[in-house]
Amino acid sequence: MTQGRELAPAVRSILTAASERDDTAECDPLAVDARSLTDAIDRAERDGRVPVIAEVKPTSPTSDGTREDDPVELATAMVEGGATAISVLTEPTHFGGSAEALTRVREAVDVPVLRKDFVLDEAGMDVVEADLLLLIARFVGVREPTDSRASRNATRPEAELDELVTAARDRGFQPLVEVHDEAELEAALEAGAEIVGINNRDLAELEVDLDTFESVAPHVPDDVTLIAESGISGPADVRRMREAGADALLVGSAIMDHAGDTDVTANTRALVRATAETETKTRTQT
Ligand SMILES: O=C(O)c1ccccc1NCC(=O)[C@H](O)[C@H](O)COP(=O)(O)O
Question: Between the CA of residue 231 and those of 20, 64, 178, 262, what are the distances in Å?
């Protein structure tokens, strides 16, 4: 799915690192007993909370700094602020994440936990248990060329999106398929995705534009759980994404506040309580 436009150098570097990762040791496929995201969203809606998936994101290529806080303390503080689910970056080199952090977070909270990483094939799934697993449509079927001819990963076959969706479900994960445009959405739906994230961050330029969600969301069938990802900076953006049809929002930077080091409970709560009583969802099936 990456044909066409160039990727930002930081994203190329992320993909190269993903291709060369040695945490994808050959091991038995995981068998996960997953916590349901849709049930968690329903609970939030009943409580009058905007469903927010709060992200433990120590740093990133576009962050203003790094937060060194313990991931468990961050995650429990986010849940205290009303988060419906937690996303944990497990990519170590560019995001400061780890599989161990995810495991500790999942043990500490009772909400669903998303593994946010750059999974390119089935072997990449069997690293750590999580309730949801991110699959990025743009990166499926593509492996960055590696200089390391010795890298055993260079010989792993590339997978198709439908195969990865099935493989994730076979392990018990709920696959969250991330898209950025209509073509990727079509591929995600053809692959059988039931949870779709529209990423407002363009991985070619790393620029964020909330218009992306607004333009792609109307093409998402109503029976798909739809998540607005990236660039949601405050309550006004929450309202905007909800009005455009988001069932839930994935928020990292605005909660982590890498530069300001503010209270993640308060930051989460501000988003969870962003909507007034008059909330509308205008997504229509096409
Ligand atoms: O966040 C980045 O800088 C980034 C750069 C390159 C590829 C992916 C990147 N982010 C991954 C994410 O999906 C976000 O962490 C997530 O959607 C939350 O975004 P935000 O609320 O804007 O931090």
Answer: 29, 14, 15, 18
Average confidence (pLDDT) over 144-167: 64
Is residue 1 in a domain? Answer: no
pLDDT-based confidence at residue 145 (cuts at 50, 70, 90): very low
Tell me, in angstroms, the distance from the centre of ligand 1 to residue 276's CA: 27
Inter-axis angle of helices 235-243 and 264-272, to 10 degrees? Answer: 40
Q: Is 87 part of any domain?
A: yes
Choosing from 135, 207, 230, 250 the residue with most ligand 1 atoms within 8 A of its CB, the one to mutate for a pocket test is: 230
Contact 258, 61 (CB under 8 A): no
**Which value, in Å, is the radius of gyration of the alpha carbons in the chain?**
18
- Cα of 230 vs centre of ligand 1, distance in Å, is 6
For residue 72, what is the domain's CATH number? 3.20.20.70
Q: What is the pLDDT confidence band of residue 158, given thresholds at 50, 70 and 90? A: low
Domain count, the chain: 1
Q: List ligand 1's pocket residues with C-beta within 6 A.
A: 10-11, 14, 55, 57, 60-62, 201, 203, 206, 229-232, 250-254
What is the reported pLDDT for 64? Answer: 87
4 within domain boundaries: no
Mean local confidence (pLDDT), 199-228? 97
Question: What whole-number percentage of the chain has pLDDT above 70?
Answer: 86
Model confidence pLDDT, tens digit, residues 18-36: 888 877 656 789 999 999 9
Q: Which residues contact 172 (CB under 8 A, 6 or more apart)?
A: 30, 31, 32, 33, 34
Claim: this prediction has a pTM higher than 0.95:
no
Give residue 28's domain range: 9-285
Spatial CA neighbour of 246 closest among 111, 84, 50, 115? 50
Residue with tokens 């991110």: 134
Residue 3 lies in a domain: no
